[in-house]
Amino acid sequence: MTFIALARALPRVVAALALAAVAGCATTQGVDRQDRHTAGPKDPYETVNRKVFAFNDTLDTYALKPVATAYNKVVPSPIRTGVHNFFGNFSDAWSAVNQLLQGKPSDAGTMTLRVLTNTTIGIAGLFDPATSLGLERKSEDFGQTLGRWGLEPGPYLVLPLFGSSDIRDALALPADTYVSPALLVAPKYWKEVGIDAIGVIDTRAGLLGASQMLDELAFDRYTFMRDAYITRRRSLVYDGNPPDLPEEDDADDAKSAPAAAPAASGAQNGTKPVLPATPAASGAQSSSVEPEGPVRVAGAAAAKPPTPPSQPVPAPAPPPPPSMPGGGVQPAPVPASAPTLPVPQVGPVPVPPPPASAAHA
Question: Is 147 among the domain residues?
Answer without folding.
Answer: yes
